[in-house]
Structure formats: C-alpha cells, structure tokens
Amino acid sequence: MTAGAGQSVPAAASRADAVPLDQRLRITEIFHSIQGEADAVGWPTVFVRLTGCPLRCTWCDTTYSFHGGQWHSIDEILAEVGRHGARHVCVTGGEPLSQKRCLVLLRRLCDAGYDVSLETSGALDVAAVDGRVRKVMDLKAPDSGEFKRNRWSNLAHLRAHDQVKFVLAGRADYEWARATVEEHQLAQTCQVLFSPVHASLKPRALAEWILADRLPVRMQLQLHKLLWGDEPGH
Ligand code: SF4
Q1: In a 10 Å sphere around its CB, with 0-12 CB exposed, 13-18 middle and 19+ buried, how is residue 63 labelled?
Q2: Which atom number of ligand 1 is nearest to the Cα of residue 63?
Q3: Which residues fall within 8 angstroms of residue 110, CB to CB, at 6 or more apart?
Q4: CA distance 166 to 185
Q5: Is CB count within 10 Å lower at the N or C end of the chain?
Q6: Number of Cβ atoms within 10 Å of the Cβ of 33
Q7: Spacing, Cα 148 to ligand 1 middle (Å)
C-alpha cells in the first residue's frame, strides 16, 4: 500500500510490551503527510502504516513494511495520531488487515471523530471493517503477480463511499481491468480508480486508453511521488 511530507514519526520506543497482546499492533511508521491518492487526495492526513503483508506484488513500493516495526498499544497510536491535528487518517501497510486488531483501531479512530480510510490489498476479508471507514481496495491485475489472491467475495461489501483501485503495469493489465469493471458493474457500486505503475506505464498512454474507451473510471497519479519520490515516511 502507498501513502502520500511531512514529519515522519517512526514508531518510537514503546511501553507496549506491558500491554496485553489483544490491545496492541505492530507499526512500521506513523507520519503526517499529504494524501497522494484516492478520493481524499490532497488532504493533510496522518498515515498509520501497519507492519506485514502476505502478498508480494512485483511493483510494491513499500517493501520496507514487510518486516520489523514496533509494538504499540492502540491508546498510544491514538495519542500519536492526535498529536498531528489532522482530520483525515489513513490506515495502510503492508496489508493492515493481516493484523486482526486493525479492526479495533479502525473503530476507535472513527469513534474519535476522524475521517478514516483503509488501504487494503483485496486479498483479505473486509466484511468486518467498520462501515464508517472508506475502504480503498485493490484488485490485483495479472502483472502484479498476485492476481490469484483477489478475494472476489469482498465486492459484496463495498459501499458508495468505497473505492476499488487497479494499479496497471501495461496494456494487458488495462484490458483485464476494463473487462473486470464491466463484468462486475463496479462503477455502479463505488468509485473505480485506475493508476499506472510508476516507471512502467506512461500516464499519458493510460489516459488516452481511458478516453478512447469512455470508461467510467477515475485516473489518478500518486501525488506524493511527484512531491517526494519513494522516500519512506511520505
Ligand atoms: S499488497 Fe502488494 S503493494 Fe500492498 S504492501 Fe503488499 S506486496 Fe506491497
């Protein structure tokens, strides 16, 4: 998953070792930045990046989140998020749902009044995600190498405020995504986002294909990459 500069606040030394296992999460970083994609693009946002992902997408730009991190209690995470004074919070990874207590964190953030989004791979069950959370769910195209991990039953849990994101590496991925949008009538359910893989598919080519096919999808580039490249913490 990706995010969108600001001060990076790495998971600091924690007192979470004293917290029961069922109240803590492994965190790679918490930082304040500009949301770089999806429908909250441009908003100052606090990103909570959970550690770990069971997938290995060929074009993944957050491999540093696969391992490491530090345990933090959910209370500590809420306190760190609050320190930044932003209205928007994005829970990302890795694959945040690979830690079951992510569901508790999402609910607690909503209860605290934040505008919360979740970036998820589409491979894990989203049924129990709090309905107030805006899900930004990938469907993995063939060139990701993780096409078989798509959990198609997740489509039944999408609401109008959710988004399905296709990250596309070339024309074959595009044609698959176009057929998938049509087959599942995705544009009637939620927003559909098409993004080119950085340095693999020229944005202009993708734009021209979308226009030629008159697709009901929203193209996006990753604003944070234009601003800060691939530096972690942005
Ligand atoms: S789902 Fe894919 S892109 Fe997202 S963190 Fe895992 S390997 Fe990377």
Answers
A1: exposed
A2: 8
A3: 116, 130, 132, 133
A4: 15
A5: C
A6: 25
A7: 14
Structure tokens at 216: 């009901």
DSSP H or E stretch at residue 104: helix 102-111
How large a percentage of the chain has pLDDT more than 70?
Answer: 91
**Domains of the chain, each with CATH number or no CATH:** 8-228 (3.20.20.70)
**102 and 91 in contact (C-beta within 8 Å)?**
yes
Q: Would you state the structure tokens that stand for residue 102, as one six-digit string?
A: 């992510």
Split at pLDDT 50, 70, 90, the class of 160 is very high
What's CA 80's distance to the chain center, in Å? 20
pTM beyond cutoff 0.70: yes
35 is in an annotated binding site: yes
Distance in angstroms (rounded) separating the CA atoms of residues 98 and 95: 6
